[in-house]
Amino acid sequence: MSVNFQYPSTPTPQHPGSLTFLKLGGSLITDKNKTSTVRPDVLARLAGEIAATFTANPDMKLVLGHGSGSFGHKAAKKYGTRQGVHTPEGWRGYAEVWFQASALNRLVVEALQAAGLPAIAFPISAAAVTTNGKVTTWNLTPLKTALEQSLLPVVYGDVVVDTELGGTILSTEDIFQHLALQLEPGRILLAGIEAGVWADFPECTQLIETITPGSAAQLSTVLGGSAATDVTGGMASKVAEMLALVAQIAGLEVSIFSGQEPGAIKDTLLGGKMGTRISAA
Predict the structure, then answer these.
(1) What is the count of structural domains for the chain?
(2) Is residue 134 within a helix (H) or strand (E), and if so which, with residue range?
């Protein structure tokens, strides 16, 4: 564990051919305590940093994801959409959650396009089917083609039709989990407002530097949920999902870090080590 957190000044360049997944957390790009409120200056800065990374490493392959933050979680909690959709009122709520999530996605894609990035959204609500929250059908040919043609695929937490639950919500981590098993990225980077996983949240003085499957059991009492409304599980869910992935994909490394500091996204994309690292060993 470490009580200090510093951004590296000279990140190690990423291997040009490797695939990276990057999530911009809902807490980072929206004010999660104010309904449907984006942080436009932050969003523009993050888009600029991603664009600068491609300038420094034109061969980088990236799948970008983002959370819903204040655009989706409050409506989802109101209707219990994550738990299933079975009534007319529930399906109206399903549509409301979709609308809010897609509205934020449009703002994200607009910011990326304004920064000169060839971003294109891949909403799972129009393409995937799940069973008890696990993807069973999703044709990834369009997304793979986008990567091959040096476009920037953008995914996000969204509603989806489920064969058992009627409908549900997949978080960005859920989506990353499915995509990672198909595409096998080298790194998954989860950028939020916290510097990483804290051993003493909410005091936040002891940052956990590394989490492995072997050490995870000792952390069950310190992994909490989210300080704001988050129907998809908060930090504990993120860590559990990422631990499952590093156990299945050889060499995969996950970083949970803060995107608040200017330059953090670019430095991390280029190979800098920040926040909490999750790996198989």
Answers:
(1) 1
(2) strand 134-138
